[in-house]
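Q: Predict the bound structure with glutamic acid.
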Amino acid sequence: MEIKNHERLHADDRNLCRLAMSELGDVYSDLGLSTEEFDLLDTPKRSFTVHFPVRMDSGKVKMYVGYRVQYNDARGPAKGGIRFHPELTLDDVRDLSFLMTLKCAVVNIPFGGSKGGVVVNPKELSRNELEKITRGYIRAIEEYIGPFKDIPAPDVYTDEKIMVWILDEFERLKGEHVPAVVTGKPIELGGSRARSYSTSLGGIYVLEEAMKKMGMEKSKVKIAVQGFGNVGENAARILHEKEYNVIAVSDSKGGIIKDDGLYIPAVIKHKDETGSVVDFPGSRNITNKELLTCECDILIPAALSDQLNRDNAKDVKAKLVLELANAPTTREADDIFFDKNIMLIPDILANAGGVVVSYFEWSQNLNNDYWEEEKVLEKLKRIMITAFNDVHLLCEDQKCRLRRSAYSLALKRILHAEKLRGNL
Ligand code: GLU
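A: Predicted complex:
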């Protein structure tokens, strides 16, 4: 299994949780929650640890530990990915499942939030062992997942192939086809069109809406994208196809800049051939740090967490920041941006396009009715734009930052569903 940036990815999400939890303290006090409301939000609905045996290639049997937390399902079945990571803890899974609950609520899709995983280092496993672990984990949580209970998806170090094993194991246990039990499947087994680039495109729909609010004109803006993994590369490619001027991009080896715009298809080819965007002919090499403070109008951090921090936030020239990465902005930088009138579109809204298309996949599976790419895109656009406008309206009303209004909107929706059910 090919694994990139192993330790970093997980550490990033830990940071996301830390930031989210610190933001929450303030949102809770803004919302003036009652003790009952606070208590309900403070604890996951279901949380379990499973232990299961796996016969390794050596012939020896090893015990593995898996977790699944269904944080809240007042708005619909729980939804969230499964990660395989050697340092995974139940606390991580719990915090991440809460963030999934907020993410689904902010874009108003009919899901609650969950997360799960197995404590394992997939780098050390053969394909056969990886498959046995996946199947063993699914047998252990089988009773608790299902299209109307909890629907897993890919997350850190789990991919399409693993989703197929999940599907197959679950269907064997049930003795029938149940494609809606998991999302992120290949198209041939019920996956949705456009899912592979839905996070980037969802973010761009939101960005275009934000540009309208800021009175920014497409032909006049310069865009810098940090990160050239799946999300960053797709964002740069889509922006280029939409005739935006992408002037700077970067990957873990460094960045490039060209003031009159980069020809992104050629940059992608260069990266495929050389392993990096660096040294792209006709551009100037810059560092990742320099990219963040370059002369641009829109900045899209799509790589690591903590990139925009107290040291560089005051030097950022962009007027609009789209957080396609998880937690790229620290709390201090957030304050600086607010003071400088820089609009920041927060991660739980900006990168929700992935789970939105997961929702479409689930819906197509349940109806056995598969959509053309055009239909997926049109519906994704509508959901993302509505979510942005909902968050923006609240933000204008409360004179706060978008991050704060995104969190409060999500929490209000969750609490409303709990009240309607009579739980509050
Ligand atoms: N793991 C992804 C996320 O955290 C996708 C979840 C899903 O599609 O259910 O957003």
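A: The CA atoms of residues 79 and 227 lie 27 Å apart.
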